[in-house]
């Protein structure tokens, strides 16, 4: 039997039902997290919980659980579902109330949902690298909130899929922001460059792990916006996310990156990242 969490209780996955006036369903009025599980252990759990709390605060939803309660709920979920390799999806919405844009007047209990899914690592792509396209970033100006409102991201990703690509690299005017569900990095003359974590991008947990690893191993990083021109002239390009890890990019909008193979700094960061996973979760 597969279980899910609904409002603090572990229930059978197919018994987890939502009200049609849940504000997550009607407005995308909520926030979420995706957490990787390797060897039955949650990777960077604390960082995900902290971002989850930050996201809830920034939309004025108060978490009805302490961090410790959430942590034990998720642990129990992973154990009950006997998840070894996969993800936890967790979201919280403002709750159920008669449809009205403004927040509900009376105190409404937020709806918390979490479930697991088995998911392998994208091993082939991590080896070969992936192709990407470019697309204008049409999203709102609070991309730092991990909001359920993902229409801009969805449209971008669909465009990538229709072009036979793994990811769409978004840009606001001439500046590259991030992927539809990933952060984007470029390497030039040995320096790793990635957009600073401000309101225009999601502060990726994977991105932060990478920045920490770079700084610990003396790989220079410059956290700043870079242009489409710089991207086109980059020696290496890669993306990062909880699901895709450190993914080499070998093509941007039909143009080959470097010599068309994952670059040496990308490879080094991949190696450091796998070591970090193994440190937290055991051998892969
Ligand atoms: N940027 C966006 C828009 C995302 O949706 C994601 C992850 O889904 C990321 C970046 C990467 O974040 P993380 O490394 O925390 O998974």
Structural class: alpha+beta
Tertiary shape = globular
Low-confidence runs (pLDDT<50, min 5 residues)? none
| Amino-to-carboxy terminus distance | 26 Å
Order of helices and strands: EEHEEHHEEHEHEEEEHEEHEEEH
Q: How large is the count of helical segments?
A: 8
The counted number of beta strands is: 16
Radius of gyration: 19 Å
Strand composition percent:
25-35%
Which ions, cofactors or small ligands are bound in this entry? pyridoxal-5'-phosphate
Major sheet: size, sense and barrel closure? 10 strands, mixed
- Fraction in helix: 25-40%
**What integer is the average pLDDT?**
98
List keywords for this structure.
single chain, 284 residues, alpha+beta, ten-stranded mixed sheet, six-stranded antiparallel sheet, globular, binds pyridoxal-5'-phosphate
Mind explaining what this structure looks like?
The mean pLDDT is 98. With 284 residues, the chain is an alpha+beta fold. The protein is globular and about 55 Å long. The strands form two sheets. Strands 7, 8, 9, 10, 11, 12, 13, 14, 15 and 16 form a ten-stranded mixed beta sheet that branches. A six-stranded antiparallel beta sheet has the order 2-1-6-5-3-4. A hairpin with a 2-residue loop joins strand 3 and strand 4. The two termini are 26 Å apart. Helices cover 30% and strands 30% of the residues. It has eight helices and 16 strands. The site of pyridoxal-5'-phosphate (PLP) has 14 residues, from helix 6 and strand 14.
């Amino acid at each position: 039997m597969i279980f899910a969490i609904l409002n603090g209780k572990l229930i059978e996955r197919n018994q987890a039902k939502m009200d049609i006036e849940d504000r997550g369903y009607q407005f995308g009025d909520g926030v979420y997290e995706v957490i990787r599980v390797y060897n039955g252990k949650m990777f960077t759990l604390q960082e995900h919980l902290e971002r989850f709390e930050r996201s809830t605060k920034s939309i004025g939803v108060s978490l009805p659980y302490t961090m410790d309660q959430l942590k034990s709920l998720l642990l129990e979920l992973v154990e009950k579902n006997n998840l070894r390799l996969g993800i936890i999806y967790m979201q919280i919405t403002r709750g159920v109330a008669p449809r009205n844009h403004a927040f509900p007047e009376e105190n409404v209990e937020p709806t918390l949902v979490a479930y697991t899914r088995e998911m392998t690592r994208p091993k082939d792509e991590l080896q070969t690298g992936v192709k990407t396209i470019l697309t204008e970033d049409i999203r709102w100006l609070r991309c730092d909130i991990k909001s359920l409102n993902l229409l801009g991201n969805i449209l971008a990703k669909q465009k990538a899929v229709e072009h036979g690509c793994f990811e769409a690299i978004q840009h606001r005017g001439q500046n590259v922001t991030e992927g539809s569900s990933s952060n984007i990095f470029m390497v030039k003359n040995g320096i790793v460059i990635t957009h600073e974590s401000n309101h225009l991008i999601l502060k990726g947990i994977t991105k932060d792990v990478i920045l920490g690893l770079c700084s610990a191993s003396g790989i220079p990083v410059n956290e700043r916006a870079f242009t489409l021109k710089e991207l086109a002239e980059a020696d290496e390009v890669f993306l990062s996310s909880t699901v895709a890890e450190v993914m080499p990019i070998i093509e941007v909008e039909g143009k080959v990156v470097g010599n068309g193979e994952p670059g040496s700094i990308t490879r080094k960061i991949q190696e450091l990242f796998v070591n970090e996973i193994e440190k937290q979760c055991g051998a892969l």
